[in-house]
Amino acid sequence: MPKLTNYMEFIVRQELPAVLASRPGVCQCRTCQMDIMAFALNQLPPHYVASSGGHIHTMVNIASAQLKTQVLVAVVNAINAVARHPRHKARPRPGRPAGRK
Ligand SMILES: [Zn+2]
Prior knowledge:
This protein is mainly alpha-helical and 101 residues long. It has helices spanning 7-21, 30-43, 55-61, 65-84, and strands spanning 3-6, 48-51. Helix 1 (7-21) packs across helix 2, helix 1 packs across helix 4 and helix 2 (30-43) packs across helix 4 (65-84). The structure holds zinc ion.
């Protein structure tokens, strides 16, 4: 059964790990990654495709370099925005045992 996929989301998912890998100072927890994806996708026009099984993978191969560049710019903007205002509190510092008085 074919399902509807936002092709932009697919490219963002594909490109995000590499961009995050180049930004070691940025929190990479699941909350932040989801925020980054949401922020990036809100900047990009949706591009829905009806896909079944491996079809989407064929689509990726024909993705234009321009589309990918557009996604990378949006992902970098999103990382900058989320890094400035993470939705959660700062990560707990190591070296302070929790739950002991
Ligand atoms: Zn985080």
